[in-house]
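dumping the sequnces here before i forget
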Amino acid sequence: MLQTEKQYVQWLENKNGSESLYTARWLSASNHTPPARIVLVDDKTTADEAYRLACEGTSLLWRGDFHNARQLLQALKRRIERTNERSQQRKMKKAAKANESAKSTTDSVAIPNLFHQQRQIQAQRSRILSRLLLELDADYVSKLRRAPDVSAACMAAFGQLDKAMDESCVLSFRDLQGALGAAQWREKGVPIESLGISIYPHYGVFAPTRHEYVQLLLDAPLPAVNDIAYDIGTGTGLLAIILAQRGINQVIATDLNPSALACANENFTRQGLSNVQLQQADLYPTDAPLANLIVCNPPWLPAKPSSPLEYAVYDANSAMLRGLLQGAQQHLAEQGKVWLILSDLAEHLQLRTRDDLLGWFADSDLAVKYRLDTKPKHGRSQDDTDPLFAARSAEVTSLWCLQRI
Ligand SMILES: C[S@@+](CC[C@H](N)C(=O)[O-])C[C@H]1O[C@@H](n2cnc3c(N)ncnc32)[C@H](O)[C@@H]1O
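..and the predicted 3d for all of it:
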């Protein structure tokens, strides 16, 4: 998951009585550019001071106790939340005033704006929190007091550093926490109750923690001929595993993300599957036999991903969704079917209409044979303090079964 081109950060530090310029490799899971201004901070730095510096765009290289840095991060989060709440209240008051003077134009303007505002707030929050940094050596070992062993988690997330060059690295505590969380998931797995198995996600691969749609794939009647199926955008390989378990003879799974392919491969091996092949491909596999079934759970929100980790959720201009539909005819066998798994959250956020979707089906010469629906049960759909609660609580995820017109 490292950026292909190496990037470096520099800072001034007084070690053994003399100040020198130090350099380290820059790692950022969110593709943040290397910080231009770094100051050293430690246990004596107050949360207010750290927050002020981070908001001003200064990055903070931590030299204190490892656990105190975690507490500082929590304190920064609380300060961001307080600031956001105040600005949210101001915006709500402003919106209420505007609505009073123009009652007719309310929701249709407000909801997509609210969604984009929420994304901006999240991006700003991520930028501020990512300014608390730590240094690790070429083996991903931290020299901070009470630092845990993070090397295996970092190696899995970011890959090998150049040990020959004794290359130390600097990354944000936030990215380190992401790598540690991913390592735990990879070790313990995500239980998929309806299948009676666990799936082991890798760092940077869409983790199926919301998996209500699995039941849809278990309930949908299989096409009469089921020799070959494709799983487009396989991620951890979950859907390919369901297809193989349901008795499809050969499953060909694709993804653009090489980490997803490695992850899916591990999950297939754990399940003892030998009839699933993997291909790195943009949508459809090449040199593959025509499919009796094409399954895809594409990123469900039509908006630009702001970091590599968001590619599983955001699909700019619905490019993957439309590409999948446009290519279906060419890859389907006679009587073949498409199972498209898609949340309608984008419709509730007014980022796409139902007519858009139905129009894309028709433009691709695909007709709806049937649709199965499920309501998401995840925490965010039930959080009534979320400004997008109305849209999230109305969300329905569907399996659209499509066939040639
Ligand atoms: C929402 S995730 C679904 C993952 C998995 N199928 C599941 O249901 O858990 C979407 C997946 O599509 C992949 N993807 C996005 N664009 C793609 C493309 N053009 N071709 C192949 N895969 C793509 C992403 O890397 C991601 O793994």
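The chain has a mean pLDDT of 91.
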